Amino acid sequence: MQLIASDTDQxxxxxxxxxxxxxxxxxxxxxxxxxxxxYRETFGxxxxxxxxxxxxxxxxxRVPCDQAGESCPLLACKSSGAKERVLHIHSTPRGKExxxxxxxxxxxxxxxxxxxxxxxxxxSIASAEFSTQxxxxxxxxxxxxxxxxNLVASRDTSVLLMGESGTGKELAAKAIHQASPRHKHLMVTxxxxxxxxxxxxxxxxxxxxGAFTGAVSNxxxxxxxxxxxxxxxxxxxxxxxxxxxxxxxxIETGSYRAVGSTQLKRAQFRLICATHKNLKEQVACxxxxxxxxxxxxxxxxxxxxxxxxxxxxxIIAKSILGKLSPDENYRLTDSGIKLLSGCHFAGNVRExxxxxxxxxxxxxxNIIDVNILARCLLDAAPLQAVDQxxxxxxxxxxQARYLxxxxxxxxxxxxxxxxxxxxxxxxxxxxxxxLEKERR
Length: 440
Ligand SMILES: Nc1ncnc2c1ncn2[C@@H]1O[C@H](COP(=O)(O)OP(=O)(O)OP(=O)(O)O)[C@@H](O)[C@H]1O
Fold this sequence. Notes:
alpha/beta, Beta-Lactamase, Rossmann fold, Helicase, Ruva Protein, domain 3, 4 domains, six-stranded antiparallel sheet, five-stranded parallel sheet, 18 helices, flat, binds adenosine-5'-triphosphate, Homeodomain-like_sf, nucleotide-binding
């Protein structure tokens, strides 16, 4: 135990060492009074002798978290008088990390809230810094996603991952697998899109020799590989209706038959499904069974589109470059990151990845700048095509916004703007001239 403030209740401070997770004792004015050994091992010694505030040490803020635009668990704890938790990004000796923060209130003899025990569990399923292995991000939308994954991973609950194409549903499924008690067993992915009912059934359940033309020997199904582990059904919305009944039976009874066999087999697995479709709408129009929908949807997690976490684009882009060419040490310029952060990637992280892959082909050195990126942004449109109110602006307003945004991104470089916009420089000057006239 490291005791910082001398007037701290010593017994209370010593209690921290009973926690196997990093823990600190905090006063009602956010002062850190004591830390346990596990905390110091994980987050380092607190250098300031006296008056070190939790918001300074964990975030480098000069004011409490709630005044810096974040949720403050201590404040929440003060108002509820009960245990509170939140997922925060903390500064650590290793850089920024996601941390699951739990705050417990302790009352003095007079019944007033006097101390707070803060337990800080580092979350390893995602990275807030460059990483080629994990999901990367630090925006509020991404942190919420990490929080959801972190909460459900240790359970055996079925998870439904929903989100547009390329938002990272498969990566999220892998993160759940790695953080789950089943991580020593396999996660078997079944790509449901484009499979006919027959093919789906024999892939999943296996078949016996002679079950159909071409079944020359017994073949085990993917379910056998998933035994004890995780079955990940990607694009569950594309499973043919006939197969949905068999899937439902499998989930409800844990048993199935290989194609052509009468023998009942048992399967033991955790289910994770993913879809880019709106399954509720699919249910309403009769394309997806309602009973199956409720079976797979025990814990829904929505993956936010990239345009709702623009702050993450830079760190994701750097991580993707590290993954694409580990030896090249590609560097993105700040204006390049700014350009990418302002784009509407309909294909989300996958489209960003494609843009970066093209950029590595065009780059003459390991520097990827705004000019190279502009050549590679084939489909990505600048953000804000749709109004805040969800209304489509008229074409003129839309064009004006587009050109203004682009000019800003390209730091006034009109040749570059013309190139990205796919118009001649003359035509750009004409349009800008018209805009100017209208403004006056
Ligand atoms: N947060 C992230 N950080 C780093 N890379 C990411 C992140 N999210 C997605 N990616 C990368 O983006 C690509 C697409 O991700 P993934 O395949 O998981 O998306 P998906 O939602 O399953 O797509 P689809 O619906 O088309 O199958 C992958 O290369 C993945 O590694």
